[in-house]
């Protein structure tokens, strides 16, 4: 059973600075406790990650994932799961919109686990991912 979620939050930094933080994919473990190891296997011509292999652990479930990243300047990035030990599919994205002196960030995530999990566990894992995306990214951008 797939589960989806979205969260909007503001970051007190320009979209280019927020996207630079998101584009530092190899530094994900610094602000996302779920990401244990991240290896950028290939990059796009602009140097941003294209294919990434990562080890992730959430709620005691360990996963080895390969994801492909797509970028649209400093406005949007998305990823799609290529292979995983624990998931059938995963799609996520960040959309950045200038707002005053900062940036409005919209994070979206859809995950379809291979193993059947109770609905409350799926929702808890989704909420943890949404909170990490907002709080962790915000702290990382702020340099805190």
Structural write-up:
It is a single chain. The relative contact order is 0.25. The longest helix has 24 residues, at 119-142. Helix 1 (15-23) packs across helix 3 (119-142). With 144 residues, this protein is of the alpha+beta class. The protein has 3 helices and 7 strands. Strand 2 (35-43) and strand 3 (49-58) form a beta hairpin. The chain has a 7-stranded antiparallel beta sheet. The protein has helices at residues 15-23, 28-31, 119-142, and strands spanning 3-11, 35-43, 49-58, 61-72, 76-84, 87-99, 102-113.
Question: What's the number of helices?
Answer: 3
Helix content: 25-40%
Distance between the amino and carboxyl termini: 36 Å
As a whole number of angstroms, the C-alpha radius of gyration is 15 Å
The biggest sheet, with number of strands, parallel, antiparallel or mixed sense and barrel status, is:
7 strands, antiparallel
* Inertia-based shape: globular
Give the gist of this structure.
By secondary structure, the chain is an alpha+beta fold. It contains three helices and seven strands. The protein has helices at 15-23, 28-31, 119-142; strands spanning 3-11, 35-43, 49-58, 61-72, 76-84, 87-99, 102-113.
Structural topology:
Elements: E1 3-11, H1 15-23, H2 28-31, E2 35-43, E3 49-58, E4 61-72, E5 76-84, E6 87-99, E7 102-113, H3 119-142
Antiparallel strand pairs: 1-7, 2-3, 3-4, 4-5, 5-6, 6-7
Keywords for this structure?
seven-stranded antiparallel β-sheet, 3 helices, about 25% helix, 7 strands, about 140 residues, about 50% strand
